[in-house]
Amino acid sequence: MKSKILAEDQHILVCFKPPGLAVQSGRIGEPDMVSELKNYLGGRNPYLGLVHRLDQPVSGILVFAKTPQAAAKLSQQAAAHGEAPQGGKNQTGKQKKNGNQKPGKEAIPSMEKGYMALVYTGTKRDGTATEQIHQIQESVQEPGLDEERNEIRRKEIKLVDYLLRDVGQNTSRVVKADIKGARRAELLYEVVEKKDRQALVRIRLLTGRHHQIRVQFANAGLPLLGDARYGTEESREYSAEKGYGNICLCAFSLSFYHPATGKRMDFQLEELPWIKNN
């Protein structure tokens, strides 16, 4: 089984999805997570509720429901955005030991997903790309201290665009706001590390659009390494040189409230997938 199980009980199944494996495939004979996990659960057509997805080339943590009741509650959390309190530091790859915080009476439980990506910073063009790369340099060189959380706080940079999806081509692109069908896309990112012509960034999605992270960073002149679809000739050549065969984008952390107990569950990967081969 290509999927890796991180946690399981009678209500939920938390797994790591490797790059290249579809969450649910419509193609006959093509492996996917749903089929793998149903085979793992055994029995005749076991229930497995699909709560959220990741694009096939993208890796990361996903939670599945093992009962319809759990699926309903988790789906409500996945639909909410940023309304639940933020947790503290996570244990890597494990549920946080003191993760027993319950949402207050007025809190709306929300599923929180954190992404990490490697972006190419060697783009040679004027405009937005130059501005974003300049901000990256500043955010790395002048970090601040968040005393409350006792950790380094770097400058968060916001990207705001309007995206138009082409269903037939399975792509999205940045367009003007007044284009029919365009949807506003927002994200925040901070730079964790920069070296050579690449930067490691931590991303918070404020909206959930088709291929949002890949399209917005490409439009900003910072294409994701390993991204053949939205990358530039320069970024593709650099990716090949460095051995990045898959998209360097990972949903590395996931937090939600347990559908039965209400306890906060926090998960984080020990290592980013592309580190193993580079």
TrEMBL record:
Low complexity: bias regions: 74-93
Catalyzed reaction equations: a uridine in RNA = a pseudouridine in RNA
Chain positions covered by the region annotation Disordered: 74-108
Superkingdom to which the source organism belongs: Bacteria
InterPro entries per record: PsdUridine_synth_cat_dom_sf, PsdUridine_synth_RluA-like_CS, PsdUridine_synth_RsuA/RluA, RluA_PseudoU_synthase
A Pfam family it matches: PseudoU_synth_2
Gene Ontology terms, MF aspect: catalytic activity, acting on RNA; pseudouridine synthase activity; RNA binding
All residue ranges annotated as the Pseudouridine synthase RsuA/RluA-like domain in the record: 11-80, 111-218
GO biological process: enzyme-directed rRNA pseudouridine synthesis
PROSITE patterns, per the entry: PSI_RLU
SUPFAM superfamilies recorded: Pseudouridine synthase
Entries under PANTHER family matching the protein: MITOCHONDRIAL RNA PSEUDOURIDINE SYNTHASE (PTHR21600), PSEUDOURIDINE SYNTHASE RSUA_RLUA-LIKE DOMAIN-CONTAINING PROTEIN (PTHR21600:SF52)
Name of the featured protein: RNA pseudouridylate synthase
Organism, scientific name: Eisenbergiella massiliensis
